[in-house]
Prior knowledge:
The complex is a heterodimer.
Chain A: E1 2-7, E2 23-27, H1 34-40, E3 50-53, E4 56-58, E5 69-73
Parallel strand pairs in A: 1-5
Antiparallel strand pairs in A: 1-2, 3-4, 3-5
Chain B: H1 6-11, H2 13-16, H3 22-31, E1 33-37, H4 41-53, E2 57-61, H5 86-97, E3 102-106, H6 115-119, E4 124-127, H7 132-144, E5 149-155, E6 158-164, H8 172-175, H9 188-191, H10 197-214, E7 223-228, E8 233-238
Parallel strand pairs in B: 1-2, 1-4, 2-3, 4-5
Antiparallel strand pairs in B: 5-6, 6-7, 7-8
Helix pairs in contact in B: 4-5, 4-10
Amino acid sequence: MKVEVRLFANLAKLLPPGSQNKRTTVAVNRGAIVDDVMDKLSIPLKITNIIMVNGAHRDGKTELKEGDVVSMFPPIAGG
Amino acid sequence: MAIFSQAQRDRYSRHIMLSEIGEAGQEKLLEAKVLVVGLGGLGSAASYYLAAAGVGHLGLIDSDVVEISNLQRQILYSMRSIGMPKTVAAAETLLSLNPEVKIATYQERLTSENAVEIIQEYNIVVDGCDNLPTRYVMNDACYMENKPYVHGSIFQFAGCATVFLPGGGPCYRCLYPALPPEEIMPDPQDMGLLGVLPGVIGVIEATEAIKLILGIGRTLVGRLLIYDALNMEFQEFNVRKNLDCSVCKGN
C-alpha cells in the first residue's frame, strides 16, 4: 500500500531526490507501522520526531492504512 | 489599580485603548516577570517587544559575547556591542527603549544546577536557546516550578512555536522524550540560518507571553505552530500529552 510522507526542517533532506514540496509517496506492506516508513526512508529511529498521522498526533507504533498522510517534525535546536 | 504617570499613559496608550487590555491589563504587564533564556536571534526579538510592551521585570540569561556574525539577526546589538557580553549589550538596548523595565542579568548558561533557583523568581520563561540540552533543562525546571514555558526554535528556513503550560497541555518531553545522540543532530552553527526567521518566531513567543500575562485570547497550549519562511506557510498541529512522560506523566 502507499502512504504519503511529509518531512519538515532537517528531515526534508532525507526525501528521495526530485521530491517536490517536502513530500513523497512510500510503498509499504499492509499492516506497516510508522517506524517501518521511517526505516524505508533511512530516518534514524534514535531521533524522536513529532509524528502526525492524518493530522493527529501519534507515535512510531501507529498502524497505517492506504492513503494515510504521515508528517514528521524533528527536534530543532536553533535560536 | 495602578496610578499611571502621564508618561506611562502616553507610552502605553495604544495598549490602553484596546478593550482586551486597558489600564488593568497594562498594570498586569508592569507587574509581570519574564525570564528570557538566551539572547540570540529569538531572545533579541522576544525581549525587545516584551520591553516595549512594558513587562516590568525582565531576566536575561546568556553566557556569550557579541560577535559580528550575530548582527545578521540579533537585533539587540550594534557595531559597538561587538566584544561585549550579550547580557550587558542587551540591557543597554532594552533600557534605552524603556528605562522603566527592571532588568536582571545572568552572564552564565542555564543548567540543571541553577535553573530552579533562577526560574523561581519569574512568572513566565521564554525560550531563546540555541541548543537542545538547555531546552530539556528549561522544560523540567518550568514543570517543577509550575511556570509556563513559551517555546520557540528555528532551523535554516523553518521555525516552530508552542506554549508548554504545566497542567494544561503537553510538555517538551511529551513531544521529544529523549535528547537525540549528539552525533546525529546537525549543529545549527554549521547549517546557515535566514536572518529574519528568529524575528518572526521570537515575536510570536513575545505575543504568547503577553497573552498569558493578560489572560486573553487563545494561546498555543496544545498546538504546535510550524513556520516555513521559504514558502511563507504556517501550519498547525494539535499536540497531546504523553501519559508515560518522564517529567509530567501526562498531568
